[in-house]
Amino acid sequence: MSQNQIPALADLVSGARIVALPLRTKFRGLEEREVLLFEGPNGWAEWSPFVEYPDEEAAVWLAAAIDFAHGNLPTLYRDRIAVNATLPAVAPEHIERVLSNFGEFATVKIKVAEAGQNIGDDIARIRRVLELYPDSKIRLDANGGFEISEAVDLINQLKSLGINIEYFEQPVASIAEMAELKLQVNRLGIKIAADESVRKVSDPLAVAQANAADILILKAAPLGGIVRALEIAAEAELPVVVSSALDSSVGLSMGAYLAAAIPNLDFDCGLATSALLAGDVTREPLRAENGFIDVRRVEVDKSKLEIFSAQDHRQDWWLERLERVYKLL
Ligand SMILES: O=C(O)CCC(=O)C1=CC=C[C@@H](O)[C@@H]1C(=O)O
Ligand SMILES: [Mg+2]
């Protein structure tokens, strides 16, 4: 993005709308998702680095949002994106209710390795999903929460139950552990996908160069925007899955554009997460229908902004964060 495409800070601040969207089910320990929205010549964009993220990381998310609102848009190869349902680490009795919000789907991503739970809890969750949706493809996401031995244990237990998984996302934390685990489990037919090893490291290509992943998870905001994410996909020469950052429909629209701009998209994308929200910022949310979301911009609705408007002290917090982070661009 050229400097003249970056809006003035005063314009960003005066146009910023900050909302706290309630979640239907706790996800990542959150019950509410705070996001800041602003409008540019291309339409609405979302800046929503998680509140604990340091300013340097939040600046990458801001560059992505500004690019989506003000920058050049990529060539698109498709107008709808196949998406997976995303299941938080809930107890088996809640699964039916949570997944019912996703409509039809072919793939479920199941969160595992939640703090305070054990592999037995993960297995019970996975088995319940397959009991309810026997034909669905299953993928797992541990957010780096396992030791290598625990990930191998879970994989072996699933094997002995005859349960196949499409891939295992970020089972372990470091790139070295990912590489070691991948060596051990590829021969069992298990694929490893990298998420945090792409978006939370200084070099998003390091995991691919270390041959530590079969698939890359790409999230537009943490990678600095659609253009950068497309470069990473092209340079890594690995299949990619575009995923959300638990955004409002505005943030999801950036993910949908990124997914639409990837020449070869072989897996369902993690962009159905508006189903995890109990409220959104538009009258026409990007909700999955029959397993797909549309590729389109989202119009923000004034009355929704009012209903979900963040409390005054949270508005101040976000605007101060914006002023600090803008200076890092
Ligand atoms: O990939 C998906 O199915 C949905 C997105 C998703 O899982 C995530 C969104 C936001 C924060 C992350 O903890 C989480 C992830 O780890 O992929
Ligand atoms: Mg993940």
UniProtKB/TrEMBL annotation:
Domain of life: Bacteria
Cofactor: a divalent metal cation
List of catalytic residues: K111, K219
Catalyzed reactions: (1R,6R)-6-hydroxy-2-succinyl-cyclohexa-2,4-diene-1-carboxylate = 2-succinylbenzoate + H2O
EC number: 4.2.1.113
Matches recorded under InterPro entries: Enolase-like_C_sf, Enolase_C-like, Mandelate_racemase_C, OSB_synthase_MenC1
Matching Gene3D superfamilies: Enolase-like C-terminal domain
PANTHER family xrefs: O-SUCCINYLBENZOATE SYNTHASE, O-SUCCINYLBENZOATE SYNTHASE-RELATED
Family: Belongs to the mandelate racemase/muconate lactonizing enzyme family. MenC type 1 subfamily.
Protein's name in the database: o-succinylbenzoate synthase
Primary gene name: menC
